[in-house]
Amino acid sequence: MTKQRFFVVALLLFMVNNLFAQTIVPASIFGNNMVIQQGIKAPIWGMAKPNEMVTISIAGKKEKSKADAMGNWMLKLPKMKSGGPFKMSISTTTDSVVYPSVYVGEVWLAGGQSNMQFTLPECKNAGAEIAAANYPDISFFTVKLNMSATPLNQVNGEWLPCTPQNAKTYSAAAYFFARELHKDKNVPVGIIASSWGGTPAEAWTSSESLINYPVFKDSVIRYQNLQEDWSKLYSNFIAARDSIKKLNNGTKPPQLPAQKNYPTSLYNAMIAPLVPYAIKGVIWYQGENNAPRALQYRTLFPLLITDWRTKWKNESMPFIFVQLANYKAKNEQPVFKDDWASLREAQTMTLSLPKTGMALAIDIGLANNIHPTNKQDVGKRLYLAAKHIAYNESVVYSGPQFVNMNIKESMIELSFKHEGAGLKSNCDTLKGFAVAGEDKKFYWATAQIEGNKVIVTCKDVTKPVSVRYAWASNPDACLFNKEGLPAIPFRTDDW
């Protein structure tokens, strides 16, 4: 055997021996460059030898915990102030894992479907934004796509500090949110991004919650009893897809497994392994896939939020979400029924849950693209809501929201909250309002701002009963407050 071959074999044996010798294995969400939530006792957990003592050291602090009879261990760090990088070591008497660069700051989970998955290179002014994405105190953990019929305890991904190269993989909306937070609070920011395009809310909700929801109970039980390995189905799909790409011979690509959108599938694979990593709150961008079932979303979306809060054992965990953007062709006449308008209404109703906030995108969408490229304003508006909801700051964080309608003969007077410094129109004329009488037929109306009220009249309706604003997939949305935040679409009827 040559010296070179001997060296290679010896190195391999050394690596294998060390691999099998490893007795301390932190959960997969932990890693170098991670951010730990400040101000709370953040849990750290993993596997070790049964009954073995585990010690964690960071920033001059030490905590110990004994693994149980199965080797599971968990301990909580003492409350820490923002800062870093710190060295963290997790050790037993025979083994240790060391993370040279760990930060303490603010951690948020970013979830949803394609508009949250939408990456920085796809956004408006991508070149300049990527070149400027140099924030060593911001770090992202992007959960790799996966699905499962049962809850998993492992995820694939790694913590990547914010450099122009790494930022190319970031969720754009989450990045701009993180940047706003970092600049405003001057603290490290960690984002755990777990999103997948074209997915419904029920796929992101646990079986414990859905099993009590009659619409999903039977399917949850049925899927739990399936013997298929959904993770393997997806990995096989990836292998087949990549193989066809290499061949480049025009072969039709394989079909994505339908199980991706089954109830609980994505919660099990992409959320369950994250619990109970300490987070400040959640930012969420989803709803397009549930629009055809908007009425159901009134219950399903609050169920998801409550479900996640239960899993993290934090009933007041801030949950900030993006309302659906304007999309599709404009309607020449007022529409009576519209899936996207109804889904937006369901999202607005969810604000009745405590510690929730909503960022509007009704003015920044694209008629021909379901993915608005202006994720900068999405991130800013998410953070504005977070400043109030999560950080208790007295700021104007929402656009005008309808409160009351007062009908005076043929005139309708509308009152709002969140009017900020006052109402204004972003259009030459205040468009987007429609009025109906008892016949339920809507006509475009004339609207004008008088003080902090909007006065609406319609020559076609002498006895108005209902008024709607921005009630369409792609409406005219001209009403704003002077802080530049758009008014929330609404209707006064329940037709």
Number of strands: 24
Shape: globular
Query: What Rg do the Cα atoms give?
Result: 26 Å
Please state the average pLDDT score. 94
Q: Portion of residues in helices? A: 25-40%
Give a nutshell description of this structure.
The protein has twelve helices and 24 strands. By secondary structure, the protein is an alpha+beta fold. α5 (172-185) crosses α12 (375-389) and α10 (294-311) runs parallel beside α11.
What does this protein structure show overall?
The chain is α+β, with helices and mostly antiparallel strands and 495 residues long. Helices cover 26% and strands 26% of the residues. The chain contains 12 helices and 24 strands. The protein has helices at 3-21, 114-117, 126-131, 164-167, 172-185, 207-210, 214-224, 230-247, 265-271, 294-311, 339-349, 375-389, and strands spanning 25-26, 35-37, 43-47, 53-58, 61-66, 72-76, 83-91, 96-112, 135-142, 159-162, 189-195, 281-285, 319-322, 356-359, 401-408, 411-417, 423-425, 433-436, 442-444, 446-450, 453-457, 466-469, 479-481, 490-491. The strands form 5 sheets. Strands 2, 4, 5, 7, 8, 9, 10, 11, 12, 13 and 14 form an 11-stranded mixed sheet that branches. The N and C termini lie far apart (84 Å). 45% of the residues are buried. Residues 1-20 have low confidence and may be disordered.
List the helices and strands and how they pair.
Blueprint: H1 3-21, E1 25-26, E2 35-37, E3 43-47, E4 53-58, E5 61-66, E6 72-76, E7 83-91, E8 96-112, H2 114-117, H3 126-131, E9 135-142, E10 159-162, H4 164-167, H5 172-185, E11 189-195, H6 207-210, H7 214-224, H8 230-247, H9 265-271, E12 281-285, H10 294-311, E13 319-322, H11 339-349, E14 356-359, H12 375-389, E15 401-408, E16 411-417, E17 423-425, E18 433-436, E19 442-444, E20 446-450, E21 453-457, E22 466-469, E23 479-481, E24 490-491
Parallel strand pairs: 2-8, 8-11, 8-12, 9-11, 12-13, 13-14
Antiparallel strand pairs: 1-3, 3-6, 4-5, 4-7, 7-8, 9-10, 15-16, 16-21, 17-23, 18-19, 18-22, 20-21, 22-24
Helix pairs in contact: 5-12, 10-11
